[in-house]
């Protein structure tokens, strides 16, 4: 009997995945909502395509990575970082016989929860949310899960969320790329309720998820250094250990770290990580970036302005929605400013009348999906005087 295209794809996957901890599509814990399998693509590849085609991913094109001005061709944006990271994670997965589609999908979706203005915006949204509800906190990896589960739309369907597999959702919510970990081993508990995770730091369930978590740092460390040079000009010399062990440019740094990770896992398949020398040099590079890039006076000034702008927008939306009955949320008149009409259109499209979350959650949802330029446009329309005549 002739095999279907999907069965042929399944056979090929079985031949490729020769790592003892590789995650097979056929062993997936499934989706939140049951649906028919694709006739050609396996589940993790299908997830990657859903992420790639959703509007939330396209918006990353106009969101800050580290250096502000995401419309500049000379610095990386959040979408650039996601694509760089996906290629690194896929390379490591291919070399080790892990599931490339799974690593690729997690990497593409890991930053969908980032709001405007990078980590400065993330800290501002966290502060604003806590001001209204001290039990809440905003971190981009936890919110990325909410985006793929609830806020993103699949093309040609009215269903909310992308309905991704458990393994991809797990890798997204557990990626936490700001940790400085030398090694990671997949957690033993497979059935953790991901939406109940409230703090960052939970280790991924799959080794592919662990690869992505470490690939995140590989993708941004050298890239941030080269972006900073293009904006700030001459930079202080990199530590000697960084140059000697990892290299002095992004291409070499990535190559050496990826090679080191592969070699380490070949020796200890149960975990993924870095050798002692590479990890020490990598840590020094991170400290260098913190001192000379992430806390650079220009970026600190940018963070202050971003927080002021987001605070003004948050307070405005809070006043706007608080002044109306809940039955009027999602309803706006032609006389309202465009920004107000778009806020109400978002509510009407995103939530039904019976499943609306708390007011502060609605505002956080709306603001988290803003690009840098949309936030600036919103602020300008509401708060800056319009020309007369």
Helices, strands, pairings?
Blueprint: H1 5-16, H2 43-53, H3 55-59, H4 78-96, H5 100-109, H6 118-132, H7 140-151, H8 166-173, E1 183-184, H9 207-232, H10 240-245, H11 250-267, E2 272-273, H12 276-294, H13 297-322, H14 338-350, H15 359-368, H16 372-383
Antiparallel strand pairs: 1-2
Helix pairs in contact: 2-5, 4-5, 4-9, 4-11, 5-8, 5-9, 6-13, 7-8, 8-9, 9-11, 9-12, 13-15, 13-16
What are the secondary-structure elements, in order, as H or E? HHHHHHHHEHHHEHHHHH
Summed up, the helix count is 16
Low-confidence stretches: none
CATH homologous superfamily heading of the largest domain: Hypothetical protein af1432
Total separate domains: 2
- Class per helix and strand makeup: mainly alpha
For the termini, the CA-CA separation is: 77 Å
- In the CATH scheme, the class of the largest domain would be Mainly Alpha
Average residue-wise pLDDT: 93
**Assembly classification:** single chain
* Percent of sequence in beta strands: under 5%
Cα radius of gyration in angstroms: 22 Å
The profile of the biggest β sheet is: 2 strands, antiparallel
Looking at the structure, the CATH topology of the largest domain is Hypothetical protein af1432
Care to count the β-strands?
Answer: 2
Helical proportion, percent range: 55-70%
Strand order of the largest sheet: 1-2
Question: Could you give a quick summary of the protein structure above?
Answer:
With 389 residues, this protein is mostly helical. The chain is built from 16 helices and 2 strands. The chain has helices spanning 5-16, 43-53, 55-59, 78-96, 100-109, 118-132, 140-151, 166-173, 207-232, 240-245, 250-267, 276-294, 297-322, 338-350, 359-368, 372-383; strands at 183-184, 272-273.
């Amino acid at each position: 009997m002739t095999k279907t295209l999907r069965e042929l794809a399944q056979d090929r996957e079985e031949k490729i995945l020769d790592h003892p901890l590789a995650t097979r599509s056929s062993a997936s814990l499934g989706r939140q909502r049951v649906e028919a399998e694709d006739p050609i693509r396996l589940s993790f590849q299908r997830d990657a395509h859903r992420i790639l085609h959703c509007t939330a991913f396209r918006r990353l094109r106009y969101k800050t990575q580290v250096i502000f001005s995401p419309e500049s061709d000379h610095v990386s944006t959040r979408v650039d970082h996601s694509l760089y990271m996906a290629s690194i994670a896929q390379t490591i997965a291919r070399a080790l016989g892990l599931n490339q589609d799974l690593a690729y999908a997690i990497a593409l979706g890991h930053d969908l929860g980032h709001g405007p203005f990078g980590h400065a915006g993330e800290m501002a949204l966290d502060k604003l949310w806590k001001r209204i509800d001290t039990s809440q906190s905003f971190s981009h990896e936890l919110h990325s899960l909410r985006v793929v589960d609830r806020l993103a739309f699949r093309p040609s369907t009215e269903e909310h969320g992308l309905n991704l597999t458990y393994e991809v959702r797990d890798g997204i919510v557990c990626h936490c790329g700001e940790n400085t970990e030398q090694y990671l081993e997949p957690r033993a508990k497979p059935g953790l309720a991901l939406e109940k995770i409230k703090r960052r730091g939970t280790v991924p369930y799959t080794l592919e998820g662990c690869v992505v978590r470490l690939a995140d740092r590989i993708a941004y460390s050298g890239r941030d250094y080269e972006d900073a040079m293009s904006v700030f000009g001459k930079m202080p010399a990199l530590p000697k250990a960084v140059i000697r062990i990892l290299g002095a440019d992004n291409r070499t740094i990535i190559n050496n770290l990826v090679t080191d990770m592969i070699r380490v896992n070949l020796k200890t398949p149960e975990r993924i990580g870095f050798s002692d020398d590479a990890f020490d040099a990598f840590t020094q590079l991170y400290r260098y970036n913190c001192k000379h890039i992430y806390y650079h006076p220009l970026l600190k000034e940018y963070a202050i302005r971003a927080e002021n702008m987001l605070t003004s927008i948050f307070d405005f939306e809070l006043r706007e929605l608080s002044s109306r009955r809940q039955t009027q949320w999602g309803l706006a008149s032609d006389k309202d400013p465009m920004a107000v009409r778009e806020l109400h259109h978002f509510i009407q499209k995103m939530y039904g009348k019976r499943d609306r979350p708390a007011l502060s959650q609605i505002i956080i949802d709306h603001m988290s999906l803003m690009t840098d330029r949309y936030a600036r446009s919103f602020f300008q329309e509401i708060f800056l005087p319009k020309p007369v005549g």
